Amino acid sequence: MSSSETTRSSTFLAPDRWETPEFVLRSFRPGDGARLAAALNSSYDHLHRFMLWAIPNEDPDEVEQRVRRFHARYLLHEDFIIGILSPDESEVLGGTGFHLREGPLEQKRCEAGMWIRADLAGSGLGKRVLAALLDWAWTEWHWERISWHCSTQNVASARVAESAGLTREGTLRAALTVRGEEPHDLHVYSILRKERI
Ligand SMILES: CC(C)(COP(=O)(O)OP(=O)(O)OC[C@H]1O[C@@H](n2cnc3c(N)ncnc32)[C@H](O)[C@@H]1OP(=O)(O)O)[C@@H](O)C(=O)NCCC(=O)NCCS
């Protein structure tokens, strides 16, 4: 049995990290609060339109409590919130994740999401992170389907999905809550394991 078949068995245990020369993808964990708060506080203006969880002036101690909850939920297989860290793990470059919004873990479907730190956005990092996330997904995770949802007005997010080979399945009308605006139309993209490249 290959290692990939092993990880896809019923005894699935969420893998913890995936490294590239440019960044590390891993579960947030105790001790990450200050570096995540720094990334969020420098990115509020960039994030607040589409990321409803974004708030200004995050307190590092509150963010530390949050990363501990993220880590606990990751270990419990409730939600997989993943940090994008610099290779030495001293800086948070953004966040991503596999979210169980399409059924329980056993059904092997999830929705991926992403944000990139403001000073790094638009430099191709989002595209490279989604490519790496999919490499990890098909190699060590058991997912059969990964979806991606974005506003029809979020050109960068749609381009990230398309660059990674996801298929646009359709557009839901007025289906996305956006801060301070009427609901946006929502593109739904997906990729299946059998389409891996
Ligand atoms: C959406 C996001 C994750 C994309 O990551 P990124 O690193 O900025 O994107 P990239 O630099 O990899 O660029 C991807 C593509 O979008 C284009 N792009 C980037 N920023 C853009 C902008 N502001 N307007 C239009 N196109 C843009 C790039 O030119 C590139 O296009 P290409 O494939 O034709 O070369 C990031 O911008 C972000 O964090 N946005 C705020 C949070 C958010 O909206 N998250 C997604 C929710 S669905």
Automatic annotation (TrEMBL):
InterPro entries: Acyl_CoA_acyltransferase, GNAT_dom, Ribosomal_N-acetyltransferase
GO cellular component, one term: cytoplasm
Entry-linked SUPFAM superfamilies: Acyl-CoA N-acyltransferases (Nat) (SSF55729)
Pfam families reported for this sequence: Acetyltransf_3
Domain N-acetyltransferase: 23-195
Molecular function per GO: protein N-terminal-serine acetyltransferase activity; protein-N-terminal-alanine acetyltransferase activity
Protein name per Swiss-Prot or TrEMBL: GNAT family N-acetyltransferase
Native source species: Eiseniibacteriota bacterium
